[in-house]
Amino acid sequence: MSGGIAYVYDPERTFTDRFNPDMVDAEPLDHDDRVWVGEMIERHLEETGSMLAVRLLASWASTVSDMVKVMPRDYQRVLDATGGRTRRGRRSKRRSWRCLVGEPTGFMKYGRQLPRRRPVRVRLRDWREVYEPFAEEAVRQQGARCMDCGIPFCHEGCRLAT
Ligand code: SF4
Questions:
Q1: Distance of CA 155 from the midpoint of ligand 1 (Å)
Q2: Residue 159 DSSP code
Q3: 2-6, 58-62, 67-71, 112-116: which has the minimum mean pLDDT?
Q4: Which atom of ligand 1 is nearest the CA belonging to 160?
Q5: Ligand 1: which of 108, 145, 149, 156 to mutate, most ligand atoms within 8 Å of CB?
Q6: For ligand 1, atom 6: residue with the closest CA
Q7: CB 105, CB 36: distance < 8 Å
Q8: Domain boundaries in the chain?
């Protein structure tokens, strides 16, 4: 993890024994974090009706005390140097998914689509793209499926792309 902030729900209190502290710090949530995480869980509840979100919000004081904030040290250095004005900065006012993601529920609204592949016998004769052209509108719609989840290698780890 090299960028962004992760909030880990750790009711068993085992996380700090199992994470690699070489590049990141694990710390309790401060006031701003609590507010922000609470808003995100409320938003998640609104959008999905998640029963887990209901449970977490119902016992909010204990939920928050069971959470750990994971902060990459380099990222913290950038925040400190910029006064927290980065896109996901701790002191940034723009912390909502609405600002970061075009369509927060796009992954539920649009199914996965891929451009068609050119036939193998044709592809063997040239070095051009494997895929046929994909309409710009379709590309935009597929892009709307992104949740800005923070996985550093989208091309390999995106659960929405499989
Ligand atoms: S892994 Fe997928 S959902 Fe996450 S940021 Fe990348 S494209 Fe978006």
A1: 8
A2: G
A3: 2-6
A4: 2
A5: 149
A6: 154
A7: no
A8: 6-100, 106-161
